[in-house]
Structure formats: structure tokens, C-alpha cells
Amino acid sequence: MRVALLQLAADIDSAANRDLVTSQLAELDVDDGIDLVVLPEATMHDFGAPDLDLAPIAEPLDGPFVQMIAAEAVRLRTTIVAGMFERTDGLPFNTLVVVGPDGQLRATYRKIHLYDSFGYKESERLLPGEIAPVVVEIAGRPVGLMTCYDLRFPELARALVDAGAETIVVPAAWVAGEHKLDHWRTLLTARAIENTVHVVAAGQGGDRYTGHSLVVDPWGSIVDEAASEPAIVQAVLDADDVAKARSVNPSLANRRIKPTS
């Protein structure tokens, strides 16, 4: 499975962000044969200031942002995963949409673990999603979804693997700060090693966020990594790598503490 990660810095102007995405995706071509394109969390609209009300800017799943993603998925004949704020009757969800090559919405994942940490309170502006793993088949491969702060909760990654995931996709807006880049790399690598999966992480860059979008293989080796500026990271994920890693290191099979439900 060939993947492309778009690292960008979203603004608090939804229309400008749509233009930014289309301009960056213009660097990709259908002849590139890309199976999966991953955009960061909050690509539709940045979180903005901590007191910014996200409800008025949230969009429905058939709104302008998803329509733009659908048009690009059709143009590239690929599946796109992207982060948005999803409108409800109250507080919005922090949602990942999965749009297929036919332009149809194939799945959604609503962020379970809201970022109430490091002095932030995401739960004051957003609703948490249902506690249920979301795995979607892309190019014949089972792909699990999580968002940013979810990365700090290994039980979610394990639930995705127990649901069949062989690749975990992590769109993020990982806030920059002391220790944060070390945490980002370490946690992504740990999720890959302990679950013997590929991990594909697309982060927002710029001054506010950590950037460093990267791909980790099932052995925990970083295949490729961006810096903080806008970038496109591409990689090929070989299903045989997962099978080989699980043969040499059958830690999943050797578990003695099994899921209780």
C-alpha cells in the first residue's frame, strides 16, 4: 500500500484551508498510484485560541470540507483520511473522515480521548466519540484510526489490532513544547513495536505544532520523517513486513492477558 502524508499548518479560515489542501494535493498525480492520503487533525479549521467557540465553524459530513476531500479523492483515485470538526446540535465532534476513490464517505472516527492535558481543555469545546475501534479496509489492508491524544492510550491501539488492523493511521495537531517531539516519536514507535503494525502519522506543522509527520514500520524503525515545514511524506507499506515481524516477534500471540470484551 502506497501512502502519502500531507503536513500543513491550518488557519482559522475554512475556505483558505480548503485552498491550501487542494494546492498541496496538486503535487500528487493519479499516476503516482497512491492508495492512501492522510491529512492532519483539524485540517478543516485550526483549533485557534483556547476560548474560540468551535461550534459555529463546525460542518456537517456533507459540507464544503468533505465535498472538497471527495473531489480530490476522485481526482487521485485514492482514499483520503482528514480531520474536521463535525457539527451537532451542541458541541461538535473532532472527527476523521475516510473518503474513498469514488468520492463516497466510507467511515468516520470521532476522537475518543480529548486533550485535557498540558494546560488545555479540549472537552470544553468538543464532545468525545463513542468508545469503539474503527477499522476500515483500504487497498485490501485493514487500517485502524486514532487521533492525536489517543496515541497516549495504548489500549486503543491494541483494540484496533484486535479488530484486525495491520496499519494504524494517526492524524494529529500535536502541540509543540518541551518534551513533546520526544513523546511524539517515542509513542508512535511504541505503538508500532508492541502491536507489530505500520504506523502512519500526519501532523500539523508550523510554529504552533510539532510537525514531524512520519511512517514507522512494524519493527519500530522510522521509514521517513518530515521536519516542521509543509511537506509530503511518501512510503510503501509492505504487508509482508507485518507477517515477518509477527513471526519473529509473536508478542500478540503470546499474550496472557486477553481482552475482556
Automatic annotation (TrEMBL):
GO molecular function: hydrolase activity
Keywords: Hydrolase
Superkingdom in the source lineage: Bacteria
Domain named CN hydrolase: residues: 1-239
Protein family: Belongs to the carbon-nitrogen hydrolase superfamily. NIT1/NIT2 family.
PANTHER family in alphabetical order: DEAMINATED GLUTATHIONE AMIDASE, NITRILASE-RELATED
Protein name: Carbon-nitrogen hydrolase family protein
